[in-house]
Design brief:
Oligomer: single chain
Structural class: alpha+beta
Radius of gyration: 21 Å
Order of helices and strands: HHEEHEHHHHEHHHHHHHHEEEEHHEE
Strand content: 5-15%
Helix content: 40-55%
Number of domains: 1
């Protein structure tokens, strides 16, 4: 297991050889440093994402003590209150109810109506990049596009948007393996500040509803008159913002870094922009923005003769699954024409990403704008990887135009 080391910069830079070793080793491997069972193969990850014997939480069925786990430290409570009331970390029936209500305000029609706004914003951002002869693709295009889009959807005024990305980054630090106390302190502070801001915004929207997503979620109810509580509204808004841009930001820079390393594929894309939809899917598969997704074992399961007891934690390795040769022909090769591409970058089952259609629109819009308006875009300097393993991204991506 020496090759799998999520704290080793060399592994973080390129985890895919270690994933191949894990897949060859078997369907499941216990990893003592994190007390997790690693699952690297596509068929198993895909099946387990749909297996109701596993859960994102266990607290709907067990206390911490009953489950053999220790409760989080009291000083972390603001983060867990925020995190634990969002769809991503809930199980039925609460997950079902909240997703149903949120879906009323997050319809395919709503997303489709955003296309002109997304395309216009992408074009403006790329034009600004071109005008100055290049810059950091991360901060000039990849970040501002999805942050602005989800903030616009939620109804967050432009004057209030500056803290959104820092709050998100600090909160998402808790999703890494064994986060430090400093990371936890930043997440707690961001959780408090973000929650306070949203509480005020929700109060304002209750008095004066608009056509934004927060107003829609406040108004959403069903035949049983179920509504979102204030905490559920806050947690959902934070989740939509965090999930609504983190993966898109990282997919954009990971994807362009992959294209620069595969010039023949970039040339093919520049010659044929109709490849953009399949390119978006392939780039998300090739360098997966979310490398690991966890599940608790609620009822004992067996994988390939190995019994995994209740109370254990399973780490499904999305990056490994997306490179499984049993599913993807020549998986280490970037192929923008790949037709059969059942990647699991958006997860699967009841927790399938509700924002996947929007993410695809954003990724296609930024890619199209860069191909059309910056046809000579090239790498200016070798990028550095962020030290994070779970959420995979770059510190920046310096580019030149002209």
């Amino acid at each position: 297991m020496a090759a799998f080391d999520p704290w080793d910069p060399a592994f973080v830079d390129d985890p895919y050889p270690a994933y191949a070793e894990l897949r060859d080793r078997g369907r499941v491997t216990y990893y003592e440093p994190t007390d997790q069972w690693l699952v690297p193969r596509h068929a198993d990850v895909s099946a387990l994402l749909r297996d109701r014997r596993l859960g994102r939480t266990y607290q709907h069925r067990f206390t911490h003590e009953d489950f053999g786990r220790t409760a989080p430290p009291p000083e972390h409570e603001p983060f867990h209150t925020l995190n634990d009331h969002g769809m991503l970390d809930l199980e039925p029936p609460d997950h079902t109810r909240i997703r149903r209500l949120v879906s009323k305000a997050f319809t395919p029609r709503t997303v489709e109506q955003l296309k002109p706004y997304v395309s216009q914003l992408a074009a403006e951002l790329v034009d600004a990049l071109v005008a100055k002869g290049g810059g950091d693709l991360l901060t000039d295009v990849a970040e501002p596009l999805p942050v602005a889009v989800i903030a616009e959807m939620l109804g967050i005024p432009e004057s209030d948007r500056a803290p959104l990305r820092p709050w998100s980054a600090d909160i998402c630090g808790m999703y890494e393996l064994s986060p430090s106390e400093d990371t936890a302190a930043k997440a707690v502070r961001a959780s408090n500040e973000f929650s306070s801001y949203l509480r005020e915004l929700i109060a304002a929207r209750r008095k004066n509803p608009g056509d934004d997503l927060i107003s829609g979620m406040i108004a959403a109810h069903d035949e049983d008159d179920d509504r979102l509580t204030e905490q559920e509204l806050i947690s959902t808004a934070v989740l939509l913002l965090n999930a609504g841009h983190e993966a898109t930001v990282n997919s954009t820079v990971n994807g362009w870094w992959a294209l620069f390393r595969n010039p023949e594929q970039l040339a093919a894309l520049r010659a044929d922009h109709s490849l953009i939809p399949s390119a978006v899917e392939e780039l998300m598969r090739y360098d997966t923005p979310l490398q690991l997704f966890e599940r608790w074992v609620l009822d004992e399961i067996e994988i390939d003769g190995t019994t995994i007891p209740r109370g254990a934690e399973i780490a499904m390795l999305f990056g490994a699954a997306n490179h499984d040769p049993a599913v993807f022909t020549d998986p280490e090769r970037l192929d923008l024409t790949r037709a059969d591409n059942p990647h699991i970058s958006f997860s699967a089952g009841i927790h399938y990403c509700i924002g996947a259609p929007l993410a695809r629109i954003e990724l296609a819009a930024s890619m199209g704008a860069l191909l059309e308006r910056a046809p000579t875009l090239r790498l200016a300097a070798e990028p550095e990887r962020k030290p994070n393993f779970v959420i995979r991204g770059l510190e920046g991506l310096s580019v030149e135009v002209g």
